[in-house]
# Entry
Amino acid sequence: MMAKTLRIFGYGNFIQVKLKVLRFPVGSSNFLTLGQYRLLNLFSFKLLWFILVVFQNRAAIPALIILIILNVCHPKKRLAWKTFFLISVVGVCTDSLLSISGVFLFDQSLPFLPIPLWLLLLWFAFAMTLPYGFAFVSKSSPLIQALVGAAASFSYLIGMNLGAVTYGYPLLITQCILIGIWSLLIPLYFNLIHQERYNVILK
# Structure
């Protein structure tokens, strides 16, 4: 909060009126603090993961609306698009290669990608959430980040049990592949985020 002095002249008398002007924290959106945005971001990702995995392409429109809201609330839009693009491209390419190689089997796919629309949107959600909703992981060592990535790979197993994806290879082999990939992806992602100077908003 900051006090400003407004000088008003009338009837020859000098009147001082102090007005308190609200100043939003540096790095916040226009109407959310950084802490509030992180909570919104993390909650939104959990919601998006659930509706996209359970309802798949039928949840595309609600998912797009939520993603637009997150973008509107984003405190660093210009800088965010750089890491958003990098994270999304790496993730979509990874899952596309897994689909082409037969590790993943989907009932539907996009005309220009071997993965379905709902998975593309889920990667968009993840790319928007990682720098904020999972900011606490960025301060960990690469080993801890790798362990977090390994744990995150089991989300595919949950998705398989919910009927969103089918494993093309035996369960143990597929899960080992995913653990290996994600234990590399998470440290890579946070390295990309820091290279784009996102460490300013992760403090």
